[in-house]
Amino acid sequence: MKKLYVLPLFLMLISCETDYYFWSIDKFEFKKDALNDDEKVKLLYTSNGPDENTNRDYYYHLIVVSQVTGDTVNVLTASQNGFNESSENEVFNFYNEKNIITIISHNKLDINQLDGKNIRETEQIKLKKISKVARVKAYDYVADNNFPTVIGSIGKTSKN
Fold it and tell me: How far apart are CA 70 and CA 73, in angstroms?
């Protein structure tokens, strides 16, 4: 699998660009097993987006490096987790599309809606279909790549 060795400047991670464009989700090559659920990853890049994406109309595009395999992977996520400049040196957990964390954030569910459901029931909840991905043209030299892509989210559930 290809690895990304560039990106020493964290300025790419948090783009302050206000002109956002979108790619079709069809541009990305999906490989569901590119990252395992709860795998530790380092964040290299996020496209951010033109707004808070409260209606979950588009994906944010993240580029991460697996701390297990060293592989570089695109992650499409519907929620922006407040990444900032200090996120550059942090290790996060990846949550796949069946993980309750992704299901809640992707579908913007109220956690009280899940009261009384067991884990098998929550895994059956389908993610909202999203067809576009936020893009900042100034960073296409990083974001326009052939890395495998997964849908999920990243965050922290343990001391990394």
Answer: 10
Token pair for 87: 């996120």
How confident is the model over 98-149, as pLDDT tens digits? 888 888 888 887 666 666 666 666 667 788 899 999 999 999 999 999 999 9
Quick one: which of 154, 148, 151 has its CA closest to 31? 148
93: helix, coil or strand? Answer: strand
- DSSP character at residue 79: S
70: left (phi > 0), else alpha (psi -120 to 50), else beta? left
Strand, coil or helix: what is 139? helix
Could you tell me the two tokens for 66? 């697996």
- Cα–Cα nearest to 75, from 117, 121, 43: 43
Residue 113 and residue 80: Cα distance in Å, rounded?
22
